[in-house]
Design a protein that fits this description.
With 315 residues, the chain is of the alpha+beta class. Helices cover 36% and strands 23% of the residues. An eight-stranded mixed sheet has the order 4-3-2-6-5-1-11-12. A four-stranded antiparallel sheet has the order 7-8-9-10. The longest helix is centred in the first third of the chain and has 23 residues. The chain binds glycine.
């Protein structure tokens, strides 16, 4: 009953970005599902240096595909902070052990999700930030990329557009004026019923240097508990953190006895909008292997491969 769902961020998606985003999501979901169902090791899957846990690897693999997509706000394509630089956050979580690893404010690497996984697998810690995270990457032999390699024309344009607002992040990003790009994520369940989730982001255009949003915080950007489900979130990070969006969605699902996964997401996203005025989206896989998504923005690119092997996608 392996199933995967991925997203490429909840925001007001312009028409010309719809198809490439959808295709990118489909590719990520299909590659992850293939790796899952074939139980392939990371090495076999052709991308990762790891051969551990095909489930976590499939989530990592999906997020890596999304991080490589230039229209998505993660890895290559990350938006720019107030200094015009890329600072990225990521989290990966294993619902069988509740273990997780995350990184915040990392620079000059292509795949923050893989670094988050190394934090989870190879350290006694759950989160590394900034200089320390980059030092750890160096120690692990993660290749450094030129900062300019991560910066796309779209990210530069968003930077210039948002600069014109000359307003704080909240006014630019939040409420009804949800412009820009936002975050990628994946959730998967394997043939044994274990669940993993991952989320990666460049954050918000013009964010203050050093600003960290929801993404690397457990229960905010992502969560997984194989006894209940797994979630990856996107949207206004400060709002998501205030309402613990991923944890709230999981608790609501549990209270509903696992029935109505989309209802659980709708309830928690509705709460976020009512309570703190923040918009966003989320994807979920339940312990029964059902996939669901919901968003309160104008759009969210997503794709899933269901437990029956059906590929779906949307914006
Ligand atoms: N949701 C991504 C961020 O706000 O950083």
């Amino acid at each position: 009953m392996a199933a995967v769902i991925v997203h490429a961020g909840a925001y007001d998606i312009p028409d010309h970005e719809a198809d490439p985003l959808r295709e990118g999501c489909k590719k990520a979901a299909q590659e992850a599902h293939k790796a899952l169902t074939e139980g392939k090791s990371a090495v076999d899957a052709g991308k990762m240096p790891y051969s551990r846990c095909p489930l976590v690897t499939s989530v990592e693999l999906a997020v890596c595909v999304l991080e490589d997509h230039p229209l998505m706000d993660a890895g290559h394509g990350s938006v720019l902070n107030a200094a015009g630089e890329v600072e990225m956050d990521a989290i990966i979580t294993d619902g069988s052990s509740l273990n997780f690893g995350s990184v915040a404010g990392v620079r000059n690497i292509s795949h923050p999700i893989s670094l988050a996984r190394m934090v989870m697998d190879d350290t006694p810690h759950v989160m590394l930030i900034g200089v320390g995270a980059n030092l750890f990457a160096k120690e692990k032999g993660v290749p450094e990329v030129d900062p300019d390699e991560l910066v796309t024309a779209e990210a530069k344009e968003a930077y210039q557009t948002f600069k014109q607002y000359s307003s704080v992040v909240d006014n630019v990003f939040n409420i009804d004026n949800h412009l820009g790009h936002d975050t990628v994520g994946a959730v998967a369940i394997d043939l044994c019923g274990n669940i993993a989730a991952g989320t990666s982001t460049g954050g918000i255009s013009l964010k203050r240097v050093g600003r960290v949003g929801d993404c690397p915080l457990i229960g905010c950007g992502a969560i997984a508990d194989s006894g209940v489900g797994g979630i990856s979130c996107t949207g206004h990070g400060e709002s998501i953190a205030k309402v613990l969006l991923a944890q709230r969605s999981l608790s609501t699902l549990q209270a509903k006895n696992g029935i109505d996964a989309e209802g659980a997401l709708s309830e928690s996203l509705g709460y976020m909008l009512d309570r703190v005025g923040g918009r966003g989206g989320a994807i979920m896989v339940t312990k029964e292997g059902c996939v669901a998504r919901h968003y309160t923005t104008k759009g969210m690119a997503w794709a899933s491969v269901s437990k029956t092997g059906q590929l779906d996608s949307g914006i």
